[in-house]
Amino acid sequence: MKYTDTLLLTRKNVADLLSLEECINAVEEAFKLYAEGKVQPPKILGVHNHKGGFHIKAGLIEKQTPFFAAKMNANFPNNMKDHGLPTIQGILIASDGGTGQLLALMDSIEITILRTGAATAVAAKYLSRPDSKTVAICGCGNQGRVSLKALMKVRSIEKVFAFDTDSVRADKFAKDLSGELKVTIEPVTDLEQNLSHSDIVVTCTPSKLPFIKPEYIRPGTFIAAVGADSEEKQELYSELLISNKIITDLTEQCATIGELHHALVNGQVTISDVYAELGEIIAGKKEGRISGSEVIIFDSTGTALQDVAAAAIVYEKAVSGGIGKKLNFSEQESNYNPAIKKKMK
Amino acid sequence: MKYTDTLLLTRKNVADLLSLEECINAVEEAFKLYAEGKVQPPKILGVHNHKGGFHIKAGLIEKQTPFFAAKMNANFPNNMKDHGLPTIQGILIASDGGTGQLLALMDSIEITILRTGAATAVAAKYLSRPDSKTVAICGCGNQGRVSLKALMKVRSIEKVFAFDTDSVRADKFAKDLSGELKVTIEPVTDLEQNLSHSDIVVTCTPSKLPFIKPEYIRPGTFIAAVGADSEEKQELYSELLISNKIITDLTEQCATIGELHHALVNGQVTISDVYAELGEIIAGKKEGRISGSEVIIFDSTGTALQDVAAAAIVYEKAVSGGIGKKLNFSEQESNYNPAIKKKMK
After folding, report:
1. Active-site residue B81, yes or no?
2. Which residue of A has its CA nearest to B337?
3. C-alpha–C-alpha distance, residues A329 and B107, integer Å
4. How many contacts, defined by CB atoms under 8 Å, are there between A and B?
5. Given phi > 0 = left and psi -120 to 50 = alpha, else beta, which region is B284?
6. A70, B90: Cβ pair inside 8 Å?
7. Chain A residue closest to B95 (CA)?
8. CB A126 within 8 A of CB A35
9. pTM of the complete model
């Protein structure tokens, strides 16, 4: 019987290994393969209590070698206040999809942030006006930072509006990124005034109350609604979904935990009002943007497709670069004192 | 921001830490808490391809401290033949159910075997005749061995029949365990002859075709049907479920992947024919065995309840005994050469 080593990769390892460009390409391909029926629908499960919850997203991509990943993220909103702990903590399990061998265990936070930003960029590539120059980032946390970096890989952005309920955070976002990305970033507070001058709007806040009204959005805008990823989260007034073009990452998932969920519950749209899943656009099964005046909304709930695609890159690069610690979880010899063992049994 | 170490526990660590007695007690308590509504229903998801599949079972128990576990087992039936690899490989994620902190990652195989054997013992304690003396073990692998050991903790077993399609394995089972457990074990091949002299029958094979016929079973027998844990697996002729007392571990799960599944599909029983879930018997909500003559079938598909209960013991004992390696998956400093990093990006 063969037993294989499992690679252990920390958040720092993952951050060092996974570049945004690679992640964007891999996420684009994963959505395309899914739309072409070459990847089975990813699965999701959730377990909750009154303090927070655990979500697991799992999927399998069949490329040269089949690759399976299951990502478990814990989300405890009061963690920082109550315990000085991060809100989101998690781990990703990577396995050989043809033999089940446990290839790697890696921190999931960096992958979650990068693959989400990557989906925003892929969606913007197909759904925003090619001449888009102005971006509004609503929510200046890590996700906002990565979203802007990712967007700048696919569009020639010249001006950025940075919103945050915490103005210090918006200022820091502007200060940090304007130099790094060589772009003008203006921290702003008036949503209506500034969104109506934006070509692309990204919402990535933890908000449970909608704050983007239909009248803020001008014709031709592309909106990436990233924040809503559980049934109680919402950023767009659901009226916005009426008569605008809705593209989902996975329609079934958005109907449960995305912006779509709220518009369905309010009876403002039906599932048949969803124009397409992102993969169908990438695969050429449906046209993306067909005019410079339509408002297109990308409902991004975050899918296992993206996790699997990103994890596959991290794993391949870790192996080829010799990165990470190794542990054989099936090892047969005891690594502790038999005396302790006896006492403990 | 605090980041905490995660404990890494190998199969050997888990085997050293988890005793069958503790596991039986914890599994009994977990089923009871579930029946009393103190544990929410565990969740399950599956991802498959033509070679095998991945199952994740997750649950959260609220005791003194809430404890969450998600177990991922890969099942690739041709692994040994094709690759010299184990059929089942897996890992269990243990987290603090109140903060989401990633407490431990542990090999899942030992837990799967022990918690399954433990459920058989708990079921036998409540559902077999107290004077049961004779056991038939069908399937002489690890699960068969643990099942017999577990049964002997709850009943005074004097005679064991060991069946296996591989007679060498049955012989070895008898040889190994008769000395260790001080019990008479007879390797046998005639199912009908020997099952009809057994008080307790345990089936724990990977069979996809039923092999236990109703006429093999005498009145008063307790059957633990352990093998069936996916929709294509089956050990009992589904006629056996008609008019005998059916107890499930989780009825919803058994209806999908257990022996119950086949009887439902064949239209031989309905969900309302299920007498109880095991937890309801333990909690005293329903009576267990009410006569010495009824045949009682325990449909054991394996639940996250058992995994969480067993993992909690392993984690607590590992911490108090200082067992296992530690890794902080959120570490912020790179552990490899910046030159490699530059090259790889």
Report:
1. no
2. A323
3. 6
4. 243
5. left
6. no
7. A74
8. no
9. 0.91
User: Whose CA is closest to A315, among A101, A120, A149, A150?
Assistant: A101
Residue A132 corresponds to which tokens in the numbers above? 């888009």
pLDDT tens for the 345 residues of chain B, in order: 677 899 999 999 999 999 999 999 999 999 999 999 988 889 999 999 889 999 999 999 987 789 999 999 999 999 999 999 999 999 999 999 999 999 999 999 999 999 999 999 999 999 999 999 999 999 999 999 999 999 999 999 999 999 999 999 999 999 999 999 999 999 999 999 999 999 999 999 999 999 999 999 999 999 999 998 888 899 999 999 998 999 999 999 999 999 999 999 999 999 999 999 999 999 999 999 999 999 999 999 999 999 999 999 999 999 999 999 999 998 754 333 333 344 333
**Active-site positions of A?**
71
Could you give the C-alpha distances from A323 to A56, B70, B337, in angstroms and in order? 26, 26, 9
Q: Which residue of B has its CA nearest to A341?
A: B16
Across the interface, whether the CB atoms of B54 and A58 are under 8 A apart is answered yes
Least CB–CB distance from A17: residue in B12, B45, B344: B344
- The Cβ of residue A40 has, within 10 Å, a number of other Cβ atoms equal to 14
Measured between beta carbons, the chain B residues lying within 8 angstroms of A1 are: 80, 84-86
Cβ atoms B57, B71 nearer than 8 A: yes
Nearest CA-CA distance, residue B51 and chain A, Å: 6
